[in-house]
Specification:
Number of helices: 18
Number of strands: 0
Largest sheet: none
Shape: globular
Structural class: mainly alpha
Mean pLDDT: 84
Order of helices and strands: HHHHHHHHHHHHHHHHHH
Low-confidence stretches: 1-6, 214-228
Strand content: under 5%
Radius of gyration: 22 Å
Helix content: over 70%
């Protein structure tokens, strides 16, 4: 595309990237409240109704992570190729229909089938698509935008007790069906707000004023980056960089905690403390308070300080919270766990996509992050399944939570070692030419 054929920039009171952020906030609130924070409620109900083992049911919820990992490379390519909107539309539709299917299951295989549809939908309309879209719209304010959008995920904790109330008052089947209706009614309109990138609307990242046309860098399809533009790594170049693997491994270790806590903290507190499901679910607003605190700190610091060092510090919080939860469930200990885990999660989560975008550029970000997702999802799979299987074996979660906490603490060094890579050889040759 030449500068003369470039669509003209349009004046807007609010930079459109912030509308993408707002949509991301709302979609992530739906994900967190209706699925991730509520899976422990469904686990208890399904176990009571059908006498399936907790480890077996955990495999059903782990399918969400398995399919996220398997879909990652293809999903990332689709976002790069077609933009986030069509991927979000397909995802939200499958997400809602999957919950409606869950409300009608009576067999273990029916449960697995419903979870497979939910997994496809939640993956396509989830973390990878949402955060890749935001990273396309912001460069200087990238950590701020992603952190603010993630506050929607935290806000899901305000809705989770309502889901718990619905399960207790109306049963898990009507609650699952109603969740599907909400996802279709709200998710599809929200998906329509997504756009590919600012350039497709004649805008620039961060809402910066347009460049004079004579100075605007022109990049034809398949051409290497020009001087003054972001350095865009190709997929193979990114995967040959050791920081790619360190970030993916560290992210995966964090997901051991992120996935295990919503699936098992409610049953853990019900068994250890004799709390009701509704009372135990109040930990989620506590986690939300911590998350919001961490997200605000990430928004303020992520674009100013070293992202990898902030992430390394957050890993200490994840690991410490799990070790404390393994051995102490008094009210003060539970409060400390929720705040410590929440702050660590809120700080670290948005930095994952921001680091990859900073290191490897925007052009192939979806595909690069998709391949990383296929690695990181191992933590999401192992965390809840390990906790469920160890519970079936030992009758409690102590050993599982201790193992997860120790592994997460050790992974701090991975982020510390994940230094920014130099530009690829082809780009250095171009700049030296």
């Amino acid at each position: 595309m030449t500068s003369s054929s470039r669509p003209p920039a349009r004046r807007q009171r609010v930079f459109y990237g912030w509308w993408v952020v707002a949509s991301a906030m709302a979609t992530q609130m739906l994900h967190n409240s209706l699925l991730f924070l509520s899976q422990g409620l469904y686990l208890v109900e399904l176990e009571a109704a059908y006498r399936w083992s907790r480890g077996t049911i955990s495999w059903g919820f782990a399918m969400v992570r398995i399919e996220t990992g398997l879909l990652g490379p293809l999903q990332g390519w689709a976002v790069d190729r077609f933009g986030p909107r069509p991927v979000m539309l397909v995802g939200m539709s499958a997400f809602g229909l999957g919950f409606m299917g869950l409300s009608a299951v009576h067999t273990l295989w029916g449960f697995f089938a419903a979870m497979a549809v939910i997994a496809i939908g939640s993956s396509l309309a989830g973390f990878l698509t949402v955060q890749t879209a935001i990273a396309q719209w912001f460069v200087r304010k990238r950590s701020r935008a992603i952190s603010l959008s993630s506050m929607g995920y935290s806000a899901g904790a305000l809705v989770a007790p309502l889901v718990a109330w619905s399960v207790a008052s109306n049963g898990w089947r009507p609650t699952a069906f109603a969740s599907g209706v909400v996802l279709l009614a709200l998710g599809i309109p929200l998906a329509m707000l997504y756009r590919r990138n600012p350039e497709s609307m004649g805008l620039r990242p961060d809402g910066d004023p347009p460049l004079p046309q004579d100075d605007a860098p022109v990049r034809e399809a398949g051409a290497p980056p020009v001087r003054g533009a972001e350095t865009d790594f190709r997929v193979g170049e990114a995967m040959r960089d050791r920081a790619f693997w360190f970030i993916a491994a560290g992210h995966g270790m964090a997901l051991l905690v992120v996935a295990a806590v919503p699936a098992h903290i409610v049953p853990h507190l019900m068994e250890r403390n004799g709390w009701s499901a509704g009372t135990a679910s109040l930990v989620f607003p506590g986690i939300m308070v911590g998350q919001v605190t961490g997200q605000l700190a990430g928004a303020a610091l992520g674009d100013r300080l070293s992202k990898r060092m902030l992430a390394a510090g957050a890993m200490l919080g994840h690991g410490g919270a799990m070790l404390l939860l393994a051995y102490a469930t008094s009210v003060p200990a539970v409060v400390a766990v929720t705040l410590l885990h929440g702050v660590a999660w809120g700080m670290r989560g948005p930095l994952m996509m921001a680091i990859r975008a900073d290191y490897y550029g925007r052009r192939y970000l979806g595909t690069i992050s998709g391949w990383a997702s296929s690695l990181t999802m191992g933590g999401s799979i192992i965390g809840p399944v390990l906790a469920g299987v160890f519970h079936d074996r030992y009758g409690n979660y102590t050993l599982a939570f201790a193992i997860i906490g120790a592994a997460t603490l050790v992974s701090t060094v991975l982020f510390m070692a994940a230094r920014r890579p130099p530009a690829p050889a082809r780009v250095r040759a171009l700049n030296e030419g």
